[in-house]
Amino acid sequence: MGGDEAARVAIITGGGTGIGAATARDLAGKGWRVAINYRVSGTEAEETADACRRAGGHAAVVQGDGRLVARGAARVAGARVDDVRRARVAGRAAVARG
Hints:
Blueprint: H1 3-6, E1 9-13, H2 18-29, E2 33-38, H3 42-54, E3 58-63, H4 70-76, E4 88-90
Parallel strand pairs: 1-2, 1-4, 2-3
């Protein structure tokens, strides 16, 4: 990987399940460092992180409110704070039922 590619970080809210987990695995397989954020799905988030690592990527698991974890998650995933501006943030898809 070249210079910019080595610093690519994805912060994925809801990354333990569904579309978020699939996104994490896909990006990790492409060499991205992924920070998998979850609120309540800790076991699933750890399983997703393990799958990312098996695919050759770097993964960190971060619990908390997805709106507040971007900076901390990027640090945990191995990015310098200055790299946060280059990080990709992927929010999971959700369906609201009333």
